[in-house]
Amino acid sequence: MATGAVRIGQHGLNADDTTANKQEYLKVGGLWKAFGEFYALKDINLEIREGEFVCFLGPSGCGKTTLLRAIAGLDLQTRGTVHQASKDISDLPPAQRDYGIVFQSYALFPNLTIEKNIAFGLENMKKSRAEITQRVAELLELVGLADQAKKYPSQLSGGQQQRIALARAIAISPGLLLLDEPLSALDAKVRVHLRHEIKELQRKLGVTTIMVTHDQEEALAMADRIVVMNKGTIEQIGTPLEVYRQPSSLFVADFIGETNKYPVRIGAEGTAVSGDLVLQCHDHNLAEGSDAIVVIRPNDVIPHGRALDTSSSAGNGENLIEVQIESMEFLGSFWRTHMRSTYLQNQQLIADFSINAERRLGLTEGMTILVELPKSRLLIFDGKGKR
Length: 387
Description:
single chain, alpha+beta, Rossmann fold, CATH 2.40.50.100, 6-stranded mixed β-sheet, 9 helices, 20 strands, about 30% strand, globular, cell membrane, 2-aminoethylphosphonate ABC transporter ATP-binding protein, cell inner membrane, transport
């Protein structure tokens, strides 16, 4: 854990203000990182506001951990700058930077008790015994492990060890908290519980936080903003809703959530044509006759019941097509439904239908139904996968 000169209590425990109007706290400018002839990072520019929770999200090898390590000073950039609280820290060693860090492996000291692990950074800062005792007790209470102080890391569960690692990282009240895939070693149920705890803790402390993750659901649930990375570059920066609903590229749309993709030709007056199917689309800047890709997410497909049911309200829908259900998977809160349609040139359409919709419409495998592809939910990308 690297720490610099920090101030105890610089972030109040009730600092839950929104970050929208706060000042820039961390700025990365023109940052490149080379390993031999390979560039892991290429011209990264990023600004993070004070108190913001930002996730670096992307597939393995995209550069997200390399960027985190550059900010921490653990792997100095080849060129470019890093500013924290208006101070140029680009060339400072880790020990002189103001941050706390939590690794995927927790990195707790196995020979020290829990309270000694948390106290480690404070002791290095030459704090008084009374200050250390009070701070450790406060943090153990904060992470809900006050009764575990005398135990050793090996006596705790993975989730408990991760909470202790967090307590140790924030013990010295750093200006910046760095989390390197902190939940990836935990089972699914513990991960969901702990991500909520981490977010609540971050809100209470008001500490600017960067978390690296490859888990899309984790980023959507925790982040104020998401930095989507691919091949050493930033594809998009936005709120969870923005990157999910308004992806800037086909890569972002594909990586965050499930998608259905179909090649189309741009038609006249806001339409996209696939074979005999003419889809009404929202406004775009693509030229008529150009090749494009239309995307719709499974949860945006609306079922309208049996295709031959003339009493159906389907006549009021947009972009209605007839499909045949090939298979249905029960996934707890919804049915993932695989369908096929001649209107889509016999390509598969995947939809997520709620349990209520499945019951109401009596959906079964082999059934032919009408589905709606809402105009407002169709995403249009050019032939290169850009919007």
